[in-house]
Specification:
mainly alpha; 16 helices; 73% helix; elongated
């Protein structure tokens, strides 16, 4: 009879203990999910349970990232939290968002960022696949490409050069690839590609301008001055491009170019461009 009493007592107490244990984790999780709570309270609640290693916490955190109605600051904080968390389910939840084409681009970008921070080495292949997938939104491909440029185990020059030179790629992809080439110090041995795009009148003005700006940091002043002078002298180039070249000549040109610039100015039919050239020549000869 006495044994039966203790069994019954344990059955009564056990559910109460279980509820207390659950509430210890569940209460901060409820605060973290509560959109009426303050940002600081939600952030503190997330900090209380970020070390939990269970699928439920990972899924709930991922839902905050996914929800576009949540403040972007909180979603970013959760993305950072999952990137640092030891929760073995967090990577799986982040990949669910990344692969979900119905999720917003912003949500997928947050998942992409979190996975890159969480798995900097093993995530390389997925970043490459994202960059090379033309069906993906440009902003996701740009983000993946920028993360690749931060990697110690980088791709060969051809990978970057193809992305930069290929006209089918959106301008944002090509400019990010160009930035990667510069950051990874791959342009010194590939100046010809840069110069070719600078001079190609069939290239977009945006790409050509970005290439000139990069060239101003990579090419010698004498080489850049000669290339800019060629752009100004070629009437096939859009007027906007020629104005841009004259403006940049002011910072790199020297007196060696004056005879050629005078010749261009004398033959120039656009009065505005002609005046800009005359001002440039006067500044150069007064040095």
């Amino acid at each position: 009879m006495r044994k039966l009493f203790f069994v019954l007592l344990l059955l009564i107490i056990a559910p109460s203990l279980s509820a207390q244990e659950i509430s210890a984790t569940d209460e901060p999780l409820q605060i973290a999910k509560n959109r009426r709570a303050s940002f600081q309270d939600r952030k503190n609640a997330i900090d209380q349970i970020k070390t939990e290693n269970d699928p439920h916490t990972a899924a709930e955190f991922a839902q905050i990232i996914r929800n576009s109605k949540e403040p972007i600051a909180l979603r970013g904080y959760v993305a950072d939290t999952l990137a640092e968390a030891k929760n073995k389910w967090s990577g799986m939840e982040l990949r669910k968002i990344l692969k979900d084409k119905t999720a917003t681009n912003e949500s997928r970008k947050l998942a992409l960022y979190s996975l890159w921070k969480k798995e900097p080495q093993t995530f390389q292949t997925e970043l490459i696949n994202m960059v090379q997938n033309y069906s993906e939104p440009a902003e996701l491909r740009v983000a993946a490409l920028s993360y690749l440029s931060e990697s110690k185990e980088n791709q060969p020059p051809k990978f970057w050069l193809d992305l930069y030179a290929r006209k089918e790629n959106p301008a944002a992809i090509r400019i990010t690839a160009l930035d990667g080439l510069e950051k990874l110090e791959l342009l010194a041995q590939n100046e010809a590609v840069l110069i070719q795009i600078i001079h190609n009148p069939r290239e977009s003005i945006e790409i050509r301008k970005s290439s000139i700006l990069t060239g101003s940091r990579i090419l010698s002043s004498s080489v850049l001055g000669q290339e800019l002078t060629k752009i100004v002298s070629n009437p096939e180039n859009p007027l906007e491009m020629r104005h841009f070249a004259v403006n940049h000549l002011a910072s790199v040109a020297d007196t060696v170019l004056v005879p050629e610039l005078k010749k261009i100015s004398s033959q120039e039919k656009n009065t505005t461009l002609s005046r800009e050239l005359e001002t440039l020549i006067a500044n150069l000869t007064s040095k």
